[in-house]
From TrEMBL:
One of its GO terms (biological process) is tricarboxylic acid cycle. It comes from Vannielia litorea. Belongs to the citrate synthase family. The active site is at 270, 328. Pfam families: Citrate_synt. Pathway: Carbohydrate metabolism; tricarboxylic acid cycle; isocitrate from oxaloacetate: step 1/2. It catalyses: oxaloacetate + acetyl-CoA + H2O = citrate + CoA + H(+). One of its GO terms (molecular function) is citrate synthase activity. Keywords: Transferase, Tricarboxylic acid cycle. GO terms for cellular component: cytoplasm. This is Citrate synthase.
Length: 393
């Protein structure tokens, strides 16, 4: 408090922006949200409280939290006509394709929160995006498996609602397991925001042109889809399944080190962390806890993941290049144990990251000096030359 805490990572000239929301110290493996460390938030807080912290800068009082949770809970329904967007996709469409399309289309339904010059509309758009993303992700899943959409309920928490919309069916009572909802909420929290990662930078760049909030968030979802970014959790579990048993790990570590081989260890390495990703540490603890509680403590994939991590961290290549497990290394194992198909891993990441995108979108718009993002380039192409007629070429 008091002193303005500024952290110059030494490359201010290339810093994308100033921000007060999330701080990462890659060397120490530290992640703070408005100053609070992620391990404490994961252990003591819950996702909607972290949403409030990211959006408004301070932990809420009991009354502020109650009002915020009421607002979010009562905005979880989608305009009924939006169902037709889902039904326009093939059943085998990747849920990320559906999320990009449906979130972008929200601008066509929620006109009264698209004027970015109006702070009140910005507030409404923020709440709508955070509230409706679980419904959109759950309905993308239901549509892909041919089951009827399940509507959100106001008597459930944010994580309970998402699980209920994903796994309930009209034909039977579905009781949300508190162990699953606690694990789900923790996964939401661990993915909430992460400084200027590729998808957040995409949102900021889109917002700098004055695009409406739904278009900006749809752009962030599209960027997150990439396997080097948010798609890594799906790619990581698929990699662990391809490895199968621990005896095959050396073969894959050798491939990851081979410059001629494009294969990389999914869930390993990070642009910023040159130490453990603190989220991976919490996720690993959750994996043990959730799998034990789900009675799959002898999960062979988890055993392979732990052995892969051990062997990679003992290998000079990974050690010297400071490559450690990142947030995606263990998350897929938990999500699969909870009953999600791999195609839903990145949509869950997108759902979780919506509050980070929205918080940074609001921060960008609140900056009176906001200029359109217009990166320059280093031109290395042909010098000036005159046109040559085709008969002279
Ligand atoms: C996320 O930015 C964020 O904050 C993103 C994220 C978030 O919350 O938003 O944290 C979420 O995207 C996490 C990252 C998920 N992606 C993966 O797990 C995919 C596998 N990892 C990589 O593709 C890679 O590590 C990146 C893309 C994440 C980072 O790549 P860089 O920038 O090349 O990493 P680096 O500069 O630290 O690499 C140093 C060296 C390079 O070799 P050299 O050129 O020095 O010879 O390590 C190599 C890389 O080739 N390397 C790997 C590797 N990751 C980097 N080699 C093998 N396996 C890997 N996973």
């Amino acid at each position: 408090q008091g002193d303005v805490f500024t952290y110059d990572p030494g490359f201010t000239s290339t810093a994308a922006c100033e921000s007060t929301i999330t701080f990462i110290d890659g060397e120490k493996g530290e992640l703070l949200h408005r100053g609070y460390p992620i391990d404490q938030l994961a252990a003591k807080s819950h996702y909607l409280e972290v949403c409030y912290l990211l959006l408004y800068g301070e932990l809420p009082t009991a009354e502020q939290l109650e009002n915020f949770e009421f607002t979010i809970t009562h905005h979880t329904m989608l305009h009924e006509q939006m169902q037709y967007f889902f039904r326009g996709f093939r059943r085998d469409a990747h849920p990320m394709a559906v999320m990009v399309g449906v979130v972008g289309a929200m601008a066509a339904f929620y006109h009264d929160s698209t004027d970015i010059s109006d702070p009140h509309q910005r507030e409404i758009a923020s709440h709508r995006l955070i509230a409706k993303m679980p419904t959109i992700a759950a309905w993308a899943y239901k549509y892909s498996i041919g089951q009827p959409f399940v509507y959100p309920r106001n008597d459930l928490t944010y994580a309970e609602n998402f699980l209920h919309m994903c796994f309930a069916v009209p034909a039977a009572e579905y009781k949300v397991d508190p162990i699953l909802s606690r694990a789900m909420d923790r996964i939401f929290t661990l993915h909430a925001d992460h400084e200027q990662n590729a998808s957040t930078s995409t949102v900021r760049l889109a917002s700098s042109s004055g695009a409406n909030p739904f278009a900006c968030i749809a752009a962030g979802i599209a960027c997150l889809w990439g396997p080097a970014h948010g798609g890594a959790n799906q790619a990581c579990l698929e990699m662990l399944k391809e490895i199968g048993t621990p005896d095959r790990i050396p073969e894959y570590i050798a491939r990851a080190k081979d410059k001629e081989d494009p294969f990389r260890l999914m869930g390993f390495g990070h642009r910023v962390y040159k130490n453990f990703d603190p989220r991976a540490t919490v996720m690993k603890q959750s994996a043990d806890e959730v799998l034990d509680l789900l009675g799959v403590e002898n999960n062979p994939i988890l055993a392979t993941a732990k052995e892969l991590e051990k062997q990679a961290l003992e290998d000079p290549y990974f050690h010297d290049k400071k490559l450690f497990p990142n947030v995606d290394f263990y998350s897929g194992i938990i999500l699969e144990a909870m009953g999600f198909p791999t195609s839903m891993f990145t949509p869950i990441f997108a759902l979780s990251r919506t509050v980070g995108w929205v918080s940074q979108w609001k921060e960008q718009l609140a900056d009176p000096t906001m200029k359109i993002g217009r990166p320059r380039q280093l031109y290395t192409g042909a010098p000036f030359r005159d046109y040559v007629e085709v008969e002279d070429r």
